[in-house]
Amino acid sequence: MSKEINAIGVLTSGGDAPGMNAAIRAVVRQALYKGKKVKGIKRGYAGLLNEEIIDMDAKSVSDTISRGGTILQTARCMEFVTPEGQQLGADICRKHGIDAIVVIGGDGSFKGAQKLAALGINTIGVPGTIDLDIACTDYTIGFDTACNTAMDAIDKIRDTSTSHERCSVIEVMGRGAGYIALWCGIANGAEEILLPEKYDHNEERLISQIINARKLGKQHYIIINAEGIGDSQNMAKRIEAATGVETRATILGHMQRGGSPTCKDRVYATTMGAMAVDLLCEGKSNRVVAHKNGEFVDFDIDEALAMKKSIPDYMYQISQSLV
Ligand code: ADP
Ligand code: F6P
User: Fold this and answer.
1) Which of 12, 75, 196, 235 could form a disulfide with 43 if both were Cys (CB 3.0 to 4.6 A apart)?
2) What pTM, to 2 d.p., does this model score?
3) Residue 109 in contact with residue 77, Cβ under 8 Å?
């Protein structure tokens, strides 16, 4: 028989992402709708271990759906990676009457949820990261907003790049994954998209393409470089030295993590947050909500963490052929 859930905890963990507040709001309001108490756990697993736990009601999440960041704050916590830290976390949940937790974060955060589930605290993961690097899902909270933010910034850089007839190396986030680079590369019509999953580090080829483009009268040359490749400042210097084309590097950085979430991020994050609560109320645990092949679904966390993801072949192909 599955245990009865009286109080649901919610936390955000790892890097923040626009739309996390929409997910928190949905968890809180759906839990209240189902007659459960809600406890907000501040600063991810670090806050759990420090017992930074607050009661939440419908008003606690008023005026948050349109706000970037996370009202619960987020953190990375090495102590929680240890078995002692996890046991302490589960004990603290029991002490505060928390029967179940919704964990909003990435793969690392899901590993923490997996450990809590094994210690008897029911858990559901909700994918929150701008990187889109969670294998079980085609969508992660914040990716859409981050891409739109980066796309707008790249459009602006393109204007000045064209005026000065420069080459621009623009570095976007994504940790080891190239999804933001791929989507922005396509959305901005970049001349070159460098993805960690695909790049062969053949700078000679890149340089001769820039020289050829210049001969053909191209007034700018936009290179979207993924953070996983990095080295953008030096790359720009090497390109300028080898091509004679003035080259600037811009690292977009943390601006990509902030800002008001897009409509898609608000709606998907809301749906996933509510679904997480519904799953807990059905007695489910150790599962993660996902959006796969156009549908909202859920997977066992162990299976989800074992899945692999790769850059979609056709999208990559057209990102190369349409330049
Ligand atoms: P993300 O959730 O975005 O992948 P991290 O990898 O930084 O971000 O993980 C966030 C937090 O999840 C870590 O700081 C840690 O507290 C917890 N975590 C990560 N890996 C584990 C693990 N193997 N076991 C338990 N907790 C983990
Ligand atoms: O995972 C989100 C992310 O923004 C990555 O794209 C990036 O590599 C990392 O977090 C940056 O982390 P921090 O904010 O700790 O520098």
Assistant:
1) 75
2) 0.97
3) no
Residue with tokens 């999804």: 179
Return the CATH number of 144-257, one of 3.30.40.230, 3.40.190.10, 3.20.20.100, 3.40.50.460.
3.40.50.460
The percent of the chain in helix, strand and coil, each rounded to the nearest 5, is 45, 20, 35
Nearest CA among 127, 99, 94, 102 for reference residue 30 = 102
Q: Is 131 a catalytic residue?
A: yes
The pLDDT assigned to 177 comes to 98
Class of domain 7-142+261-306: alpha beta
Q: Where are the alpha helices (DSSP H) in the chain?
A: 20-33, 44-49, 83-95, 107-118, 143-163, 179-187, 203-215, 232-243, 263-281, 301-306, 313-321
Please, are residues 276 and 262 in contact by the beta-carbon 8 Å criterion? Answer: no
Q: Determine the longest span between alpha carbons in the chain, in angstroms.
A: 73
- Rounded average pLDDT over 89-115: 98
Q: Is the CB of 257 under 6 A from ligand 2?
A: yes
pLDDT at 1 (0 to 100): 56
- The 10s digit of each residue's pLDDT in 2-28 is 788 999 999 999 999 999 999 999 999
Q: Does the CB atom of residue 255 touch ligand 1 within 6 A? A: no
Strand ranges across the sheet with 295-300: 53-56, 37-41, 7-12, 100-105, 122-127, 287-292, 295-300
Alpha-carbon distance 323 to 255, whole Å? 27
Which helix H or strand E contains 170, and what residues bound it?
strand 167-172
- Between the CA of 161 and the centroid of ligand 1 the distance, in Å, is 39
170 near 154, Cβ under 8 Å?
yes
